[in-house]
Design a protein that fits this description.
Number of domains: 1
Helix content: 40-55%
Strand content: 15-25%
CATH architecture: 3-Layer(aba) Sandwich
Oligomer: single chain
Strand order of the largest sheet: 4-3-2-1-5
InterPro entries: DsrEFH-like
CATH topology: Hypothetical Protein Ychn, Chain: A
Keywords: Signal
Protein name: Sulfur reduction protein DsrE
Organism: Leeuwenhoekiella blandensis (strain CECT 7118 / CCUG 51940 / KCTC 22103 / MED217) (Flavobacterium sp. (strain MED217))
């Protein structure tokens, strides 16, 4: 009975280890990135970085997301401050995400957020979820 129980536990642990190893191997085929920022002007160097990584990595370049959070979140509704960042981001394959929690906290009208910017409920949580999926992450 004791041997049967130990063998069963060993078998289950082995199966979980194999599944985890296979998942890690699949994630290594592409490089995905997420950047958490608090300032719209930082989009310029972030987009340049994405372009450089895309050129360097070729087919290994995966998804690149930028999450904007914090007290300056209202700047995303300012056409002058946003300039052509949305256009440049699109060309570079960069997805711009707005933190819904920050929008609420700093009383930014969601209807004024550009349509091409996705809004998530909680930008920090979203960042952690992407990291759990294997995204490389940096906060500025």
């Amino acid at each position: 009975m004791k041997t049967y129980l130990l063998s069963s536990i060993l078998l289950v642990l082995t199966l979980f280890s194999i599944n985890k190893t296979q998942a890690q191997q699949m994630d290594n085929d592409t490089n995905n990135y997420v950047v958490l920022t608090k300032k719209v002007p930082q989009l310029q160097p972030i987009i340049l970085t994405a372009e450089a990584l895309k050129a360097e990595e070729g087919d290994a370049f995966g998804d690149f997301q930028v999450i904007i959070c914090g007290k300056e979140i209202g700047d995303i509704t300012n056409v002058e401050k946003m300039g052509n960042f949305i256009e440049k981001a699109e060309k570079a394959g960069v997805h711009i995400i707005a933190c819904g929690f920050s929008l609420k906290k700093f009383k930014v009208d969601k209807t004024k957020v550009p349509k091409k910017i996705e809004v998530v409920d909680n930008g920090i949580l979203y960042n952690f979820q992407l990291q759990k999926k294997g995204y490389k992450s940096i906060s500025l």
